[in-house]
Description:
Shape: globular
CATH topology of the largest domain: AhpD-like
Structural class: mainly alpha
Number of helices: 9
Distance between the termini: 5 Å
Order of helices and strands: HHHHHHHHH
CATH class of the largest domain: Mainly Alpha
Oligomer: single chain
Number of domains: 2
Amino acid sequence: MRLNQPRIGPLDDAEMNDEQRAMLGERFQQGPVLNIFRTLAKAPRAFKAFMWWGGYMLSRHNSLPEREREMIILRTGFNWKSGYEWAQHVRIGKDCGISDAEIERIKAGPEAPGWTALEAAMLRATDELTNDSFISDATWTDLAELTEKQRMDLVMTVGQYTQVSMMLNSFGVQLDDGLKLDPDLRG
């Protein structure tokens, strides 16, 4: 975590106006409302747009298989040193079939032993995008097993989670109850 306290604090229940309650209402029915949503709800129009686009990223409309999508999200969050993003998506990634050993390998990157050629290419593409905002010709060629739509979704997923990481880091969104900060993402 870059900050040990929020710069923009999450709304508590008593602070919410009617619009914010309505926006977050469905989430309250599903359980605790995450700090990311309580923070972003302070900008209602942005929150609504964010939720629409973020919903696409985590839906079946994103043509990447769930497991690979989560690998990309985790690598993006790790590259941007987003402790919150990492912690949330470790849990989601495990639900999508990523093992503890693979989670550690995601931190090590595309050159770590054990990845398939395509998995390594997807992680390398993520690294290139988070370093230079561009996938090299060589890596693009290595992604040939992916459809054109999957390649587009890979780039858009890294872009979305780059934005999310920047917001989480800069706003100082703190971990939700039950999440654990990865020691490699302290400070």
